[in-house]
């Protein structure tokens, strides 16, 4: 018979409580020490390097899982509503829609950036998607989006391949690795891997829920990319650039995941 078995129930409970307290205290101390070790590691891209390695591993898993034919869930139009007005970085100043122009860099056959107006976007086939806008903060909203596929835009204004020829969207391996987008003032910017840019649900959007985009939601042109978190759905696009090197991304520079895949 153990010593614990000889104790009366009240004494046994007191001893168990003391033991539990000591074990709990040791666990808390270990967790605190581990947290202090983690947050004091060398920063890499805005976060301690162990967390950055975790984000990079998640990205590789997402890239392996990603398939162009894998669509984000499509909902009936009746399920659509207005999303929150989240974020106005790069949109602090009022924009005259009539003065807006889209600058595109890295276009095949062009000696420099080309400039396009909204009629160039609207001339492309109009596509509707009713998908979920998912915010990294945890909320989501089904929205009815309308606009031109980014893949159709890229086919119309193709980038240059490494051989110097115009790229073809049906040969994505021959295209630049990335697409960068920024607001007209450069205040907000995102980077996309080319497979995500060519995804059939990725839109250059100019209508929301059957109405023209409002200023709060990115008029006159915003990105809709249901296979990425909301931070990639840049509003008020002013520049599109085709690049071989991974372009900068506003929230990735603040320590978030660059890939932001779903």
Report on the architecture of this protein.
The protein is an alpha+beta fold. The protein has two domains: about 5-40; about 45-255, Oxidoreductase, molybdopterin-binding domain (Sulfite Oxidase, Chain A, domain 2). It contains six helices and twelve strands. The chain has a five-stranded mixed β-sheet. A hairpin with a 2-residue loop joins strand 1 (about 45) and strand 2. The longest helix is centred in the first third of the chain and has 31 residues, at about 10-40. The chain is elongated, with a radius of gyration of 25 Å. The chain starts with a helix and ends in a 19-residue tail after the last strand. The relative contact order is 0.16. The mean pLDDT is about 85.
Total number of beta strands: 12
Distance between the termini: 57 Å
Backbone structural class: alpha+beta
Largest sheet: 5 strands, mixed
Chain oligomer state:
single chain
Q: What would the principal axes of the Cα set say about the shape?
A: elongated
CATH class of the largest domain equals Alpha Beta
Secondary structure tally, helices: 6
Determine the CATH superfamily of the largest domain.
Oxidoreductase, molybdopterin-binding domain
Beta strand %: 15-25%
Radius of gyration based on Cα positions: 25 Å
The CATH architecture classification of the largest domain is Alpha-Beta Complex
If you average the pLDDT, what whole number results? 84
CATH topology of the largest domain: Sulfite Oxidase, Chain A, domain 2
- In helices, the fraction of residues equals 25-40%
The low-confidence parts are none
Output the helix-strand order.
Answer: HHEEHEEHEEHEEHEEEE
Q: How would you write the strand order of the largest sheet?
A: 4-3-12-7-8
């Amino acid at each position: 018979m153990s010593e614990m078995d000889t104790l009366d129930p009240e004494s046994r409970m007191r001893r168990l409580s003391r033991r539990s307290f000591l074990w709990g205290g040791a666990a808390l101390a270990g967790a605190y020490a581990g947290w202090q070790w983690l947050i004091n590691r060398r920063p890499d891209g805005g976060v301690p390097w162990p967390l950055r390695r975790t984000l990079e591993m998640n990205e590789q898993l997402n890239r392996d899982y990603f398939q162009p034919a894998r669509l984000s869930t499509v909902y009936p139009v009746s399920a659509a509503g207005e999303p929150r007005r989240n974020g106005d970085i790069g949109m602090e100043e009022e924009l005259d829609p009539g003065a807006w122009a889209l600058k595109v860099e890295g276009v095949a056959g062009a000696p420099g950036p080309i400039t396009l107006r909204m009629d160039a976007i609207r001339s492309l086939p109009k596509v509707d998607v009713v998908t979920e806008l998912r915010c990294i903060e945890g909320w989501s909203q089904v929205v009815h989006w309308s606009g031109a596929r980014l893949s159709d835009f890229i086919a119309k204004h193709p980038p240059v391949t490494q051989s110097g020829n115009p790229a073809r969207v049906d040969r994505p391996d021959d295209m630049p690795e990335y697409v960068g987008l920024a607001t007209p003032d450069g205040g907000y910017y995102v980077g996309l891997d080319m497979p995500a840019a060519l995804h059939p649900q990725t839109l250059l959007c100019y209508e929301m829920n059957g109405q023209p985009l409002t200023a709060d939601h990115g008029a006159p042109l915003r990105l809709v990319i249901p296979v990425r978190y909301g931070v990639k759905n840049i509003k008020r696009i002013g520049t599109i650039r085709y690049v071989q090197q991974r372009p900068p991304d506003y929230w990735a520079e603040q320590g978030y995941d660059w890939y932001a895949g779903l």
